[in-house]
Amino acid sequence: MNVFRHPALLAAVTLALATTLFSGAVSAASNYGWDRKSYTGAQCQPAYGIQSGDFTIFQGRLRNDAAGLRWVSCAITFDAEDGLDQADTDNATVAGAFEIRVWLDYSGITAPGSFKTSCTIAARGPYNTSVTETLDVTAPKTSTQQAITFVPSSLNGYSIGNDVTIQASCLLPSKVALAGIKVYEYGRTDEYLYTP
Question: Which of 75-89, 107-121, 174-188 has the highest mean pLDDT?
Fold first, then answer.
């Protein structure tokens, strides 16, 4: 069927196309809402390559199978375009907070008692500047994932313009797995265009 011979059909097709294009333009506009990124534990790696044989990847998790403590490390994508304001989580302004949640799986523990996992968030700049924050969680064997939530005030003012890299590292007890990491950015992201 040739739509150009049927004016009503041509008008309907034109209207549908215009609506689609306009809605795409509207959805690309800034709303200063959440920008979420999720990582499985399997996207992270042992902090020391020589210890890679001490880890098992299963169901998207990275589990420490060694008898002792082992470090895992994860690179965190950070693309806030305006200086962070760690007190701002209302999505109403350009500058927003940056939150990192680390999820841990204690279901594989075979020994009795409770075990502490320490996680550190480190931000490093190009001029050997570094800010870190360390938090812990302690739990016995459980099927409920344990979470550590970071909202580091030391990141106030940082943005992609600072050339900052962010890393999460966790010291896992035996049979504890890094289940995943979720990142929330409450400010403007994804609009910066790099110009060399």
Answer: 107-121
Whether residue 90 sits in one domain with residue 57: yes
Token representation of residue 30: 């800034």
Dihedrals φ, ψ of 92, to 5°? -95, -15
| Same domain assignment for residues 26 and 39 | no
| Torsion from C-alpha of 102, 107, 112, 115, nearest 10 degrees | -10
Check which CATH number belongs to the domain holding 50 and give it: 2.60.120.260
Of the two residues 17 and 156, the one the predictor is more confident about is 156
pLDDT in tens, 136-195: 999 999 999 999 988 877 777 777 767 778 899 999 999 999 999 998 877 666 555 555
CB 58 within 8 A of CB 40: no
What's the farthest any 2 CA atoms get from each other in the chain?
79
Cα–Cα dist 16/48, whole Å: 55
List the domain range (segments joined by +) for residue 91.
33-185
In 1-157, which residue ranges form alpha helices assigned H by DSSP? 7-27
Look at the chain and report how many structural domains it folds into. Answer: 2
Residue 127 forms part of a structural domain: yes
Closest CA to 48 of 135, 169, 136, 148: 169
Write the single-letter amino acid at 122: A
